[in-house]
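worker-03 picked up job from queue 'complexes'. Input manifest follows; two sequence lines, order preserved.
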Amino acid sequence: MSDVALRSVETPRAAWINDPRVRGLVWQVVLVGLVAWILIGAGSNAIDNLRRAGIASGFDFLWRESSFDIAHTLIDYSSRSSFGRALFVGVLNTLLVATIGIVLATILGVAIGVARISSNFILSKTAEVYVEVVRNVPLLLQLFIWYKAVLEPLPEARASINLGAGIFVNKRGLYLPEPLFGPGSWLIAAGLGAGLVGAILFRIWAKRRQDETGRRYPILLTALALIVGLPLLAALLTGMPVEFKPATQSRFNLSGGIAIQPELVALLAGLVIYTAAFIAEIVRSGIVAVSKGQTEAAGALGLRPNASLRLVVIPQAMRIIIPPLTSQFLNLTKNSSLAVAIGYSDLVHVGNTIITQGGQPLEVIAVWMAVYLGISLATAGVMNWYNQRIALVER
Amino acid sequence: MATGVPASNPVPSAAASSTPVSSVPMSDAPLPDAPLRAGGGFVRASFGDTRPPPGRVGGPVRWLRENLFSSPLNTALTLVLLYALATTLPDFLRFTLIDAIWEGEDRDACRAQALGREPGACWAFVKARTAYFMYGQYPLEERWRVDLTWLLGGLGVLWMLWPRVPRKAAGAVYFFILFPLGAFVLLTGFSAVGLPPVPTYLWGGLLVTLVISAIGIVVSLPLGVLLALGRRSQLPAVKFMSVVFIEFVRGVPLITVLFMANVMLPLFLPGGWRPDSLVRVLIGVALFAAAYMAEVVRGGLQAIPKGQYEGAMSLGLGYWRTMTLIILPQALKVVIPGIVNTFIGLFKDTSLVSIVGIFDLMRTVEASLTDPKWATPVTRFSGYFFAALVYFVFCFGMSRYSMWMERRLATDHRN
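worker-03 finished. Artifact:
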């Protein structure tokens, strides 16, 4: 009955022009039309302009001979190789810098972030000065400083500076000792593998035992002993088949060893030092954000400072740290494109060489965008998976 | 926990009260001083040992002990750091200040051979090139226009940023409408009022860096707000386009965006229409910063409780009024640190335009270093140090201002 009464009431209808749904539709149609008009206009202009300038388009060029050399390659490459292979060399170089850079920047950044909250006055102040100075100077300038003001004035190869432990540095780069594998080296690798597997198995077993009995086992020490001890044992048994041969210094030259180009050294130094400052701030704010009550409660439960840090503070801080850390990793990867300014052959540098050599700018830029977007999405995916694993499980 | 603590603590000293608590047994094993087990908890029957009173040492000695030598590890760190500072800091000061060369006409002033000693930083070079670092190749007799622009801009910044200056609305009109128009007329020239035109390829140095970052900031903030609203919009087409734009731009490096703006913009425009190269990178930088700004603003929008939207709706406010009157003022306030961080990033990122051939501060310094007139081993370092100092002053200034503003705007009465 009430139903009928309600239905009989005339709902005052607003004019259709004031209906939010109609308005939304109109706005969207206008916007889509505008964007489409811009895109179509830009596209037809591009086709016109390209035809007028006589620039070939399409991705056929990827299979043509590149006829330029690349200084630093991880795979076989010569000036007879194709443009496509040149770009692939660039991609690999970008990935190399990004991977090494991310690992080193994380280590340095965490160390500095922890130093910033240290009770040691000098340590925390030094860390603060580091962060403030490094964060507020452009990365490009820092790269120039490393490449042109630090590495370039270094002595020639014949007067290389010995940093100790078989590491040399000169104008041409950094020289690390080269491992030479003799017969039986595979046993060491096998030992390392067995150590890793053993450590993981032990961790699983120890965790189960702890859940059942409450007894705790020294997981870290055992894992270290397994991972370091087994390969060492293998090495001793086979009579040290691996030898680290440093570069040899002759009167006029330095030969042998693993040579790392100055461009790569400068790029890594700049990227790591710059990104570490940001990571340090993220780590610091993450730890500080865990409320003091958590530490106090852990203390009240009888946990020692070390254990409370490891079991209570850090797991909570990680939840705050991971998302911004991901974007720093992505920033480092994207910033590695500044290699173009100091001549390290990363993707952008190789692409730029192709553009200046003979056109195909649209295609090269498309390749850049595709690769960087791919890397960004992949990294974000991995980090999101990890973040979900450690996220707070709420009921 | 309360069951483990003695019901009343007869020891009045605060220092001693912690002793019984920490000696409450953690295991079920019976202890020699036989705690009474009552109702599953522990009640301690005897007093714990009283600890000695804290030492009487106060002042600097105590501070040193607590802050520098509290543990063996800390002591070692302190000593290592002190040693490192003692070996590097004096050298640094000697190089940049004591041995530095402040006056000179050319490279002879800064060379060991001519000087008879190891030279410090060659500030004479920086001094001789300061005008170039500031204005680039802007014609000498027209540089007063740049100075006037800086003065007008500085006034606008003061008006906007200094809270004690009244009439912010007028200030906003001045800073966001009058000043850009005036600066445009002043810098590019306007023959009708007797200002000869100065083409942008003559601009350079700090002038270009500031022009790019100022326009980037002024454009990216409103554009970023619009994109953030678009990303949270109910309209699927708007949302989709915003997401695509934001994620695309954030997924690629700025340098590729600059190459794109430089190479592709002329391609996409009708034939023969070649925008000025400064305008091209300006568009690139502004769009790039807008995507980052959008994500910062989105964070602020998400932090606003739903009740605020519902409250606005119940007052009969439409979408735009809800946003401009209720949501954005709160959201933007929350994300001031993020916005300023984006500005700082934008300011530093302007150095990248030097790679695509714009003579900004970075490029003018770099270009001066190839001048044989000043070629010495210390010139390069001096030039870079100066550039780093200029960038540092601006970025550090912005970050300190934002921290100060954050404290002023803290209207939640948490503290």
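worker-03 released lock.
DSSP finds 16 helices and two strands in chain B.
The two ends of chain B are 29 Å apart (CA to CA).
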